[in-house]
TrEMBL record:
<dbReference type="InterPro" id="IPR016181">
    <property type="entry name" value="Acyl_CoA_acyltransferase"/>
</dbReference>
<dbReference type="GO" id="GO:0016747">
    <property type="term" value="F:acyltransferase activity, transferring groups other than amino-acyl groups"/>
</dbReference>
<feature type="domain" description="N-acetyltransferase">
    <location>
        <begin position="1"/>
        <end position="167"/>
    </location>
</feature>
<dbReference type="Pfam" id="PF00583">
    <property type="entry name" value="Acetyltransf_1"/>
</dbReference>
<dbReference type="InterPro" id="IPR000182">
    <property type="entry name" value="GNAT_dom"/>
</dbReference>
<protein>
    <submittedName>
        <fullName>GNAT family N-acetyltransferase</fullName>
    </submittedName>
</protein>
<keyword id="KW-0808">Transferase</keyword>
Amino acid sequence: MILRAAKLTDIDQIWEIIQYAIAQRKADGSTQWQDGYPNENTIQADINQGYGYVIEEEGSILLYAAIIFGVEPAYENIEGQWLSNQDYVVLHRVAASPLAKGKSIATKFFQMVEDLCIEKGVYSIKVDTNFDNMAMLRILEKLDYTYCGEVYFRGAARKAFEKVLPK
């Protein structure tokens, strides 16, 4: 199982995963991702900007996410307070394939991101999610992310979390 940069040739597999995640959010009663976002243009832009990453196992993509080393403008105006003011990585659009069921893939992804951050000398991970994304909220709690307040994306409040990694 490897974490690697996504390629444009991965878009079809990634889009299937995103569509599955959109359906899962809806089935869970969540309003997240029910408004046409993310879409294929979002994914293509992620890949073109070097943000798109996948976890691949034996040729199959099990998870897609955007990993952004840099500033997230929406995070500049938090209603609350971040744990740190240091450089950080942002995680967006985390979506797992149905092939990943039972593999704790999201947990493994977050652990792989921690390793990637340490390699790059970045010791803070920031992430946000919808108030009703119970699966992601459970993962963040399990992995010791700290709730820091609310940020706003496209006019909606989102729960914001940070984890500061040991140096």
